[in-house]
Amino acid sequence: MSLLRDEELAAAFDHASRAYDALVAANPGYHAHLRRSVRRLGLSGHGAGLRVLDLGCGTGASTAALRSVLPAAEVTAVDASVGMLRRAAAKPWADGVRFVRAPAERLAEAGVSGPFDAVFAAYLFRNVGDPDAVLGSVRALLRPGGRLGVHEYTLSGRRADRAVWTLVSRGLVRPVASLLGDGPLYRHLWRSVVEFDTAEAFTRRLRVAGFDRVRALPLPGWQTGITHTFVACRPHRAGEGQR
Ligand SMILES: C[S@@+](CC[C@H](N)C(=O)[O-])C[C@H]1O[C@@H](n2cnc3c(N)ncnc32)[C@H](O)[C@@H]1O
């Protein structure tokens, strides 16, 4: 099976949206880890006066993490799947959150424009066909000095971590997902992780895309060596980066 992309992937997420919240609730630490990644952006003042973009917001788990850590920030939450987005938008949100349906590759067409003080993308980058192009657009949407937070399955490169990922995916997640009719999406999930960048490779990718102050930070629990938070900045002056 090849990886799902674009409309095919959005359709798979549309279908999976019905059970998505229940599945992630069964994943220990899912929401706490998202909040930890948001805190790692290091934004102060509860986000007052800040504009934040949640790219690939899904059913709103990452949006909720942003609102929890940065309750005063204005959040624009974007997703390509109408099913995921509908569930996100149906939740009770305080003022300052708006949802936009758009692929990450075509934000301007959907009226999403910067500058943003921060962009957060949780479990998105493995899913896009051209991560470098999306990183380039994200960089352009950030104000100089603006922060990028990426929360992503990125293996350490150690065989043991890949083995744990395969065990969790094949032994736990896929059997449940198959019963729900979401087998193809969760086969894509396993494969997209083993074929995507290691944490070290994604760090390099961020530097090459022109971000600086790039750091890869591990997450605790079973996800150590499997999931990382990446934090990076758009340089203040053109031509800076590669650090
Ligand atoms: C695994 S979910 C994560 C959702 C949410 N960020 C969270 O932390 O729970 C990935 C989301 O990215 C969206 N997505 C995948 N590729 C996309 C793209 N190219 N443009 C916009 N959204 C995309 C999917 O529709 C899905 O809702």
TrEMBL record:
GO terms for molecular function: methyltransferase activity. Pfam families: Ubie_methyltran. InterPro entries: SAM-dependent_MTases_sf. The lineage of its organism: Bacteria, Bacillati, Actinomycetota, Actinomycetes, Kitasatosporales. Keywords: Methyltransferase, Transferase. CDD domains: AdoMet_MTases (cd02440). Its EC number is 2.1.1.-. GO terms for biological process: methylation. Transmembrane segments: none annotated. It is an enzyme of class 2 (transferase). This is Class I SAM-dependent methyltransferase. Gene3D superfamilies: Vaccinia Virus protein VP39.
